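Question thread 4412

I'm putting together a teaching handout and wanted feedback from people who do this every day. The idea is simple: show students a protein as raw sequence, then show them the structure tokens that encode its fold, then repeat with a second protein so they can compare. Below is the first pair exactly as I plan to print it.
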Amino acid sequence: MQLVFATNNLNKLNEVQKLIPSHITLLSLKDIGCEVDIPETQKTIEGNAIQKAQYIKEHYGYDCFADDTGLEVEALNGEPGVFSARYAGEQRHAEDNMNLLLENLHQKTNRNAQFKTVIALHFNNDLKTFTGICKGEITQKKHGDKGFGYDPIFKAKGQTKTFAEISLDKKNKIGHRGKAIKQLVAFLSSH
């Protein structure tokens, strides 16, 4: 079985490849010659995942899946949410995003947050979505140098270390993307 994972993010690709069974060949956007910045113009995480998957299906014809992930912070009414990647601007710089988030939480005592990943799968002319959520909290400052995005300031519930301080294998077991991918793999294994 061959599936396109609609991402240009090599960190995401690496995370997901570790979770996909070997009988599924994962193709990247580069593998299929897609070098455009796929539009993400929807108002929800689900909407963006669906939009990206539909774009690949319509323009390239491959069965594919796409994900969109957002960090939702309770004290900020769910921000940055769908704007997580460009929270501090269109340059999509993780350090700037984390600094702005920490600044916006400076006077807040409620630091509850959750990562939410939605995967949209276009498979055999059908569309399915899978959602993974990891609840936790935003730390006071950055810790660790693994991972990407907001990992240095997010500590999953029941954990003593941030996502940036734990191994990729552990992050995949407890994290939002890993939970959504497990649902995707279970679906594909039954078809």
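The second pair follows. I'd like the answer to focus on this one:
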Amino acid sequence: MPSFDIISEIDTVELRNAVDNSNRELATRFDFRNVDASFELKDEVVKMKAEGDFQLTQMMDILRGNMAKRNIDARSADPQKAEQSGKSWMKDIRFQQGIEQPVAKKIIKLIKDKKLKVQASIQGDKVRVTGKKRDDLQNVIALIKESDFDQPFQFNNFRD
């Protein structure tokens, strides 16, 4: 029976490259000259540090641009609230890995509402879809791609 998995992951190597490129861009930008500003990646959390709140928004734009160049979907980023400590501002950006339970239930409900001849089940942090025909599975992939969840999805482990 054909099946595939719906997952939500980011490539941590590409994320590290995007953070490194963002740090290089900070070093060359005129508006960040003589400013204590930096990006740091640790445990899939990017820590931004700058001297002002406005600089944090500029740094977020730099990071988004470098993420787009590296094919990392910006919807996977979850920016936290900016915090001030002394004269510096800090902001954490978390990245979602895996599909959370409520989102997985919405995916299964969407598939069942379309009355496609497939079965969907939650397997930890991914959703497995099985069906008798390959065409039904391709219809599910098209349905997930056109639906609007605030999270990027990838499709892997396709078996015939």
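Top answer:
Good format. For the second protein you could add a caption like this: The longest strand covers residues 88-95. The mean pLDDT is 90.
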